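Researcher: We plan to redesign the surface later, but first we want a full-length starting point. Tokens attached.
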């Protein structure tokens, strides 16, 4: 099967001045990214009955997931979700290239936010380029300081929000207000803020090219039928600028306006072919379509198209590798969905204490000593009841155990009987917390007659 070669020499080492443009793909990108941003900045604040909607709590050793309470023992489900998400990305990549990178990747989304701030504060791309070539004026310094201040505000707010999914956000804000924030949280917030500021404001496209492995192995997943952002060479060449139109004997539809390059967030020229830095955001498509409209020419000189389509062949949607990716993806998501139905509701440890195997009380009862620790992963479960499966045995100690998230500790209990069987006897213990029930078998020791 043919692999699509990726060029890797078109990114400029200098600063890229991204020109913002409107179009259907930019609208689609916002329709995808804005709900994701809203969910990210909102979900960490939401509470239902004073319980976070979504939280990975280190203090209580719980994962709160939209009313579902998971234990750390169910953490493999999150790993399963990541694997299933990876298979989804592989499927999308073979189908339509790096659409995840262009429309939903956090690196791209935050970069567009920072570019928008830059555009509003310092002016359009051509104005920023001219200012950087001229001596710095006082007004330029003020605007640049304002831009970086706004970038820092967004970075800090992003760090606070992200931390709120692991630490209670209301307690975190209270600690910040009263200057009681632990030093490890100070370091964490500063680190996340710095990475956000650098990645989205300073480094930008270098992350997509040098740090993200996706750009390197995408060519392995693509084939000649994968739809990626492409330039129609047969239609566009030879390119002729507007000034050359009267003298040109033969011309393509491309007028060499370079608008497709000006709007590209990674600074490539799509007319040079598919390149590793391309994130398939569609900005160059919107730019080219706007020019084609003005020239009264058909749209789609730059468009999502497969190599086979550009060569005049028939596009093939169903193909073995794509079906294979889809099958693996479906199995992965089905496995994770089944895993969520098999989560741990109640976790109990019931162990014998070290020392004597049994004791004989003054009233003649034979007793064994145990330690019990319990955790219930159910928001509604407040207590756990402990009982013996047979009436011949009695529990002395706390048979009703209060359950507090993250507050599981060992309790001592005594199991006694006045009519013990000689030697060893298997005894069934029943633990109940809300709708969850768990049975454990222990060995009861008594003297041999």
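Model: Full-length starting sequence:
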């Amino acid at each position: 099967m043919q692999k699509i070669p990726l060029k890797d020499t078109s990114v400029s080492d200098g600063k890229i001045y991204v020109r913002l443009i409107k179009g259907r793909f930019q609208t689609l990108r916002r329709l995808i990214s804005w709900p994701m941003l809203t969910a990210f900045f909102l979900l960490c604040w939401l509470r239902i009955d004073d319980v976070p909607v979504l939280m990975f709590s280190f203090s209580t050793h719980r994962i709160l997931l939209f009313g579902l309470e998971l234990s750390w023992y169910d953490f493999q489900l999150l790993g399963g979700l990541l694997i299933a998400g990876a298979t989804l990305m592989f499927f999308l990549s073979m189908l339509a290239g790096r659409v995840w990178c262009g429309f939903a990747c956090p690196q791209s989304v935050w970069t567009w936010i920072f570019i928008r701030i830059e555009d509003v504060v310092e002016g359009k791309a051509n104005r920023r380029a001219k200012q950087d070539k001229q001596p710095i004026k006082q007004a330029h310094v003020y605007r640049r300081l304002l831009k970086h201040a706004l970038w820092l505000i967004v970075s800090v707010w992003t760090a606070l929000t992200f931390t709120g999914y692991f630490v209670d956000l209301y307690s975190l804000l209270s600690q910040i207000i009263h200057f009681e924030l632990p030093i490890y949280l100070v370091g964490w917030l500063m680190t996340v803020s710095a990475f956000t500021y650098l990645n989205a404001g300073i480094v930008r496209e270098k992350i997509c090219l040098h740090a993200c492995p996706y750009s390197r192995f995408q060519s392995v997943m693509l084939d000649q039928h994968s739809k990626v952002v492409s330039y129609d060479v047969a239609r566009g060449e030879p390119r002729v600028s507007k000034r050359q139109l009267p003298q040109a004997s033969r011309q393509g539809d491309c007028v060499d306006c370079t608008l497709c390059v000006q709007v590209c967030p990674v600074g490539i020229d799509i007319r040079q072919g598919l390149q590793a830095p391309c994130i398939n955001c569609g900005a160059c498509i919107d730019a080219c379509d706007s020019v084609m409209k003005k020239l009264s020419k058909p749209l789609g000189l730059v468009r999502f198209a497969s190599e086979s389509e550009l060569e005049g062949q028939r596009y093939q949607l169903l193909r073995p590798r794509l079906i294979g990716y889809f099958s693996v993806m479906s199995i992965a998501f089905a496995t994770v969905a089944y895993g969520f139905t098999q989560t741990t509701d109640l976790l109990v440890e019931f162990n014998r204490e070290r020392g004597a195997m049994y004791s004989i009380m003054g009233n003649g009862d034979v007793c064994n000593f145990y330690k019990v620790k319990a955790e219930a992963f159910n928001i509604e479960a407040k207590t756990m009841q402990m009982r013996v499966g047979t009436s011949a045995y009695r529990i002395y100690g706390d048979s009703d155990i209060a359950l507090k998230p993250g507050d599981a500790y060992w309790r001592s209990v005594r199991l006694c009987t006045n009519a013990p069987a000689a030697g060893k006897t298997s005894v069934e213990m029943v633990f109940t917390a809300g709708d969850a029930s768990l049975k454990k078998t222990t060995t009861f020791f008594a003297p041999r007659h």
